[in-house]
Amino acid sequence: MKFRKLSPWLLFACLPIAITLAALALKPAQQSTEPSLTSFIPAGPLLVLESPHFATLLHDWNASQEKPAWLGSDNYHVFSRSRLFFRLQQAQQEFAKAAGFPQNMSMLDSVAGSESALAWYTIGKLQFLYITRMPSAQALQNSFVESRGKYVPRRAGGIPYFVRTDPKSHRVVAFATTQNYLLLATREDLLARSLILISEERSRQPATLPTVADQAWFSKAVHSVESAGPAERRQHALRLVLDMPSLVRSPYFRTYWIQRNVSALRKYQTVISDVYQSADEIREERVLLSGSKSLSSPSGDPKAGTGAPAVSASSAPLHQLLSIVPGDAGFYQGWLNPTASSVIGLLKQKILAPQPGSATPSQLAPTVPIGPGQSGTESDLETRINQAPIKSRSGFRAEALRSMLVEVHPVAAIQMESSRLAQGGPFVGNTAAVAVLGRSDWDGPRSRRAIQAAIHNLWTTSDVGLQWVAHGQGAEAYYQLDGLANLAIATRGRLLIVSNSPSMLCEVLARYAGRAIPAAKPGKASPKGNLVYAAVFNHARESSPMARMLRMIDFATPLPSYYGAAAGAKQPKFFSGNLLSLSHTLERVRSATIKVHRAGAVERQTVTYRLSPSKAQ
To answer: CA-to-CA distance for 252 and 246, rounded, in angstroms?
Structure first.
């Protein structure tokens, strides 16, 4: 099959993808009593990836239902035609020539041992060191040992190793086996220094070379995890430690980092991520250490509150808002201590004046008209050129909203969304609600007037359809505009709820009934710090309507062709092909949750993936 041609170098280079998909079938391993492999890794890597049992990880990835699903998906098809993939393929071919034999998954299986560590030193040149624990008898049966006659023998620390260089590409492949270790490297000096460290450890001599464990960014990250409670010190399935300043300086990282948020990462000195697995979930515990004493923004929203003083020193307000989210919400996210500007932006974009985002930049050169220019036509006789155009009255006016928010002081805000089939039609729409918890009570009439003023020039003239009508009674009371827009609002003491769906607003009010939110009181601090951000995506609920929506978006879009394709070959459509195929590949993921806690310069993120049973089970 096609995926059998993937080389180990390509797999190592695609670690973010391999980690995410392979973890779906991961099994825990036993704790090793041997010295940590990081004590044999020379100083200077950009990142270090550790696994207690790499062979099990690789076996389960090969046997998982996600692997063939992804490799046969449109998402992989598009990735396989990317510049990054072509660069990795070229490097694969160069390393194969340097190694002197074909590289495939069977070769990777032969070098996958139990506890393993991969240290990556340069991105552009693909320089790394790989160390794995493996019985000597097994280590002598891999393709490297069998081809050692083509390599130049050398020694370091009294231990023999072998190195081979491709004269054309100057790629280097070096390997060594010693007792229960197998080492592979794409730089000879890394392998030699690692062997010296192993030799010194065996002879009980102090290390003469610096290791990654001696570097501050690595030791601080590991200490931040090991100093946590017993529940956080249990055996991880994978561990990734990143030297963020060095990574951010790399032009390759800035070019290929898919999140495009390098500026937001500059404040972090190091990041450590531990992955844990059980039968029904995969959990990732991240610790991000900032270089400053405290993070600049008190809010989980990267666009909100930069440099603003925190209103609440407790995460209780955010917990209180999370408790009123309807159980069937497709997606929701909440922030602690949002600024007035961020709340206004949330209300505007999700409910009051939603607008499409920026268009994807065109990859085609602009066309140039050929022929004489033409300034007008005979049929256009109504356009006057001697008068200035009439100024439009349209525009979102947030002055009244801003004034009210500044006085109330928001201490938490939450956004909720769910997809809904349009009544009587095939279309899929989104219902949304925004709830804001203030430090003081909301003025109901003033809140309604502020919403009216914000949308007055957007929706109507002469106030038609812009009058509030009371609905419901008691705990179910709310107000709705009398026009065609489904805009509803309700206030309950310190809680303000605005929604484009009266039914969703009523669901939130029903959750709120009997849960009166008191004034925030100082409580016992969490070991992780304050909860500043939380979000949940219900993939099991949203996948079907999302598929319907994405197919409709691409319905009238022609399939684009791509450079170098065979005649008639087309690239998959982005939404209904590329994006939707990734959702189908990860159909076992029922939901994804992220929670962010902050305490001083330490930020802890917990990402949890709830899983359905595997088809093979």
So the answer is: 11
- Is 80 exceeded by the pLDDT of residue 160? yes
Q: Which domain holds residue 164?
A: 2-216
For residue 118, is pLDDT > 80? yes
Last residue of a domain, one of 197, 216, 235: 216
Element containing residue 132 per DSSP (H, E):
strand 127-133
What is the number of structural domains in the chain? 2
The structure tokens listed for 578 are: 């590329």
Residues with Cβ within 8 Å of 230's Cβ and at least 6 positions away in sequence, in order, are none
CA distances from 559 to 155, 465, 573 (A): 57, 42, 6
| pLDDT given for residue 326 in this prediction | 92
Q: What is the pTM of this model?
A: 0.84
pLDDT digits (tens, 9 = 90+) for 358-415: 665 665 666 666 666 566 666 777 777 777 776 665 688 899 999 999 999 999 999 9
Residues 6+ apart with CB under 8 A from 349: 355
Q: Which helix (H) or strand (E) holds 608?
A: strand 602-611
Together in a domain, 52 and 192 = yes
Q: Which of 516, 537, 558 is the last residue of a domain?
A: 537
Asked if residue 172 and residue 311 are part of one domain, the reply reads no
